[in-house]
Amino acid sequence: xxxxxxxxxxxxxxxxxxxxxxxxxxxxxxxxxxxxxxxxxxxxxxxxxxxxxxxxxxxxxxxxxxxxxxxxxxxxxxxxxxxxxxxxxxxxxxxxxxxxxxxxxxxxxxxxxxxxxxxxxxxxxxxxxxxxxxxxxxxxxxxxxxxxxxxxxxxxxxxxxxxxxxxxxxxxxxxxxxxxxxxxxxxxxxxxxxxxxxxxxxxxxxxxxxxxxxxxxxxxxxxxxxxxxxxxxxxxxxxxxxxxxxxxxxxxxxxxxxxxxxxxxxxxxxxxxxxxxxxxxxxxxxxxxxxxxxxxxxxxxxxxxxxxxxxxxxxxxxxxxxxxxxxxxxxxxxxxxxxxxxxxxxxxxxxxxxxxxxxxxxxxxxxxxxxxxxxxxxxxxxxxx
Length: 385
Prior knowledge:
Structural class: alpha+beta
CATH topology of the largest domain: Butyryl-CoA Dehydrogenase, subunit A, domain 3
Helix content: 40-55%
Distance between the termini: 30 Å
Shape: globular
CATH class of the largest domain: Mainly Alpha
Number of domains: 3
Order of helices and strands: HHHHHEEEEEEEEHEEHHHH
Radius of gyration: 21 Å
Strand content: 15-25%
Number of strands: 10
Largest sheet: 4 strands, mixed
CATH superfamily of the largest domain: Butyryl-CoA Dehydrogenase, subunit A, domain 3
Number of helices: 10
CATH architecture of the largest domain: Up-down Bundle
Strand order of the largest sheet: 1-4-5-8
């Protein structure tokens, strides 16, 4: 398979890389320390057109492919995991979701402001008692006249404390299991919508995460996303794309850590020579570089297959699993190379180490990816459902 980038993809990667070097990396420590939403980065990403990468021009987008979204996410992760996470939730989980599953009226109403960065997006699936087992969600939606009345709580919602528009999943037929879930487009000003507590996190601190509360929240019936009781289709047809995009995030973060560690090893002198000349340091750097390129190739491969219209449930989980494992290994070695300096906040690998743990279980935990992989392999070999 040819992984050479097209001229458009190469130009996009170069543009985003320069943006990350000039604006994202210099702000990353402050974003982490203050735990504040990266407003300047968000506005700049909107100006670059990054929020509409995979959406056609008639809605304000660029009309590129999933691979382009992966390239953007990789570069953002290299500079600041918080900015990358905010981008992914807004541009992929919310904005692209509305484009792929919304009707024409919904697209025209919501996409322009989301793509222009005038509104901040989110997706709300997880609940206090429903994480990996999303189908066990308890949020209810009952239709009354020309509205749906939603009641429930969502937890761990990226962008939740600051977002304006989002996709919320709720049970419309609680007795039907996965066939009783519906998806809705909600706005923060809908009656009955409120924000709960903002969560203090070990890492990815600048990407605000919080609780959303729906108390008899009124959602216009025309804001049903897709068909009633068919929300599982909306949910599942986006998960593979989400996992591919989020599989590259740890690779981006790990690349940032590798760059810091390589520079440090080249400049740090011990026993009269730069430590990069020591065999054990060279061993770690060689393993880091190999891991990075292996993880990157698998993510690119999965994105390429998705862009060809193929089913990528297995490939997406391969990419997410490997990307998470590679990210943790590479960042851990970067801290080891820097030694004591890697353990203090003056050097960015300390932040990257904390960020990586949160990225590891986002978009489905490592254990869930392994379950999916085995299930898909069993199907392909006729060994089970």
